[in-house]
Amino acid sequence: MEASIMDGPKRRCGAVSGLTTVKNPVSLARLVMDKTPHSYLAFAGAEEFARKQGVELVDNQYFITEDNVGMLKLAKEANSILFDYRVPTHGTCGGGAALESPIQSCAAATSTGGLMNKMTGRIGDTPLIGSGTYACELVGVSCTGEGEAIIRSTLAREVAAVMEYKGLNLHEAVDYVIKYRLDEGKAGLIAVSKNGEVACGFNTTGMFRGCATEDGFMEVGVW
Fold first, then answer.
1. Alpha-carbon distance 128 to 213, whole Å?
2. Which pLDDT tens digit goes with each residue over 91-138?
3. Per residue in 192-218, pLDDT tens?
């Protein structure tokens, strides 16, 4: 597994890769941010840090499901990498909720198990600050999809950049980067502004997503 977290106002961040026993990778990424002088730990070093910090560990079998074993078998037989919802559509999705009062700061965190049938040692966008995760005083962003396309476009950072430099609002920024920064890549993202607005965008037929507010509002979607 891989994960990252970023605290917007101070641009503090932490990331981890190559985890096989850490039950909640985002929690370890936060400890990297809060408890070390570093921003990124990976593989054996990250697992050792997890043990020293006393985070919850599980046997690797915990992460294996019958459905995913079947999908992996199909991917290996086809000698391909599997993505969810890869068929492109003509538009993007923008929607969500706004809190009644501005939030005080932005933060973002992202976690993944990676692509189905990826090469051993492959690292995706999720732990890379600015690609799969980014937060600043304006917005927090978390991405999903084809990691290589997200890395090339520094997708999460691009949302903040067009808000800063082009003066776009949250929904405009999300639509802009999905439309103009992914080239032929398939991906999506969820973003939250400093005012509590929530926007999502994707160029696939669907994206698992959800949002919730402290007053009890919840919204989920796939298509």
1. 27
2. 445 555 555 455 568 999 999 998 889 999 999 999 999 999 999 999
3. 999 999 999 999 999 999 999 889 999
**Unique residue bearing structure tokens 């890395």:** 151
Distances in Å between the Cα of 60 and the Cα atoms of 47, 63, 99, 148, 169 are 12, 6, 39, 26, 43
Mean pLDDT for the stretch of residues 173-189: 96
Measured CA to CA, the distance from residue 47 to residue 221 in angstroms comes to 34
Cβ atoms within 10 Å of 166's Cβ, excluding its own: 10
The span from the CA of 197 to the CA of 175, in Å, is 14
Q: Which structure tokens are listed for 55? A: 């985070």
Start-to-end C-alpha separation, the chain? 26
Q: Which residues are catalytic?
A: 92
Q: Yes or no: say if 143 and 128 are a contact pair by the CB < 8 Å rule.
A: no
Q: How far apart are CA 136 and CA 147, in angstroms?
A: 21
CA 148 to chain centre: 13
Residue 180: CA count within 13 A, CB half-sphere: 9
- Long-range CB contacts (within 8 A, 24+) of 57-64: 57/21, 57/22, 57/23, 58/21, 58/23, 59/21, 60/20, 60/21, 62/23, 63/1, 63/113
Q: Are 15 and 34 in contact (CB under 8 A)?
A: no
Encode pLDDT of 78-89 as tens digits: 998 876 544 444
